[in-house]
Design a protein that fits this description.
216 residues, Immunoglobulin-like, five-stranded antiparallel sheet
Length: 216
Amino acid sequence: MMRRGYLLLAVFLLVIPSISTATLYTLTDPSGVGAGTVYELTVTSLGGDSYNAVLTADTATNTDVYIDWFQIKFDEGTAALVGTVNNDPGGTWLALQGSGGINLAEFGNETFANNTWSGLYLQGAVEGADFATLSGGAELDGFTKLWDFDFTLADPLNPTPSLQVGYYYLGGNPNNPDIKTGRLSETFSVPEASALLLLGTGLVGLVSWRRKKRFE
């Protein structure tokens, strides 16, 4: 009995650090050219004001449609500062910082990142780009795409970050070189860390119950 109690306590001690250091957020694109694509964001504390973010896109199948930029509101007050890009789906992805003033293709006078948003964009996805350049992005081909990058954030992490994604695609005719755009703008769901907290609490209760039964 005592050994089982120690085993449960050990599992609990492994769960607790994951609650405080890593959080998983999810959302599904509800409509438009990216409909059905599932986004997951994992944010891990690296200590102090340093974090690691991994964004995955389990893409729907919509060929000739590409993800060429995204931005995340990690905090309501100040923009995160993106540092090292550790992994990406291919091409050259650059930091998209708050007030960065990047003029992305087909968005007219709007510049990115917006206000306190931060993220990444494909190097070729600027005004004047052609579709051949944009096709180096992350295509909606039914496979999972992954971006892994580090950032710093002066203020506490937003408990429910928002995500914007820029889609680029040909306008209805594959022989028409005109680029069209679509934008996802949604808020991530409640963090999955809450489920881990419930699991950890349950394990503690189970350990206590077993110890109580043993000494009765």
